[in-house]
């Protein structure tokens, strides 16, 4: 049974008017592509193509950039392996909050994938697979691990295996991170405990010194009092 697909309008010039469903279906028929036309504008005024029901931010390719024609900041969002979903429009305040880390890195002119593992640094991936994934907008280990089975249909053979390997690598890394965090916490608590013990020992020495001082003064006071009593007698 032929599966319905959605129109890829990414070939339209940026800023062009969104075609009506009839034009979309006609164009799709000419390309011999079965279509359920759902091209529309999103709630923020940008063009949106395909099915927006995807995973979290790590799975998406989100990029802020400067549009030289509009002379404005734009956001581009795609999902790896999905040829029919794309958002490309001016940045809104909601975008800045939703993708705060990427926006901050963009403002600082830094790599927006900072904090994630770039595939180019993954030694167990061969260069051919890295190149193929890069063509599909998969640039980080987190994006690779987040690929769904639907995405895999568009990425070709072998990707499912490396996707599962990426998930295992991230799971192990998370365990290591948790272990490191626990060790740091224990070390911090031990340091606090040593500090408390040292402070306690210092207080004990102070108390002992005060008690010795009091005990040393008591006989002299008593003797002085006795002499005064004898004199009066």
Tell me about this structure.
It is a single chain. The protein is an alpha+beta fold. It has a domain at 21-156. It is built from 7 helices and 5 strands. The chain has a 5-stranded antiparallel β-sheet with strand order 1-2-5-4-3, with helices on one face. Strand 1 (40-41) and strand 2 (47-49) form a beta hairpin. The chain is elongated. The model is unreliable at 1-21, 27-42 and 45-57 (pLDDT under 50).
Structural class: alpha+beta
Given as residue ranges, the uncertain stretches (5+ residues, pLDDT < 50) are 1-21, 27-42, 45-57
Proportion of residues in β-strands: 5-15%
Report the major sheet.
Answer: 5 strands, antiparallel
Task: Find the count of extended strands (DSSP E, 2+ residues).
Answer: 5
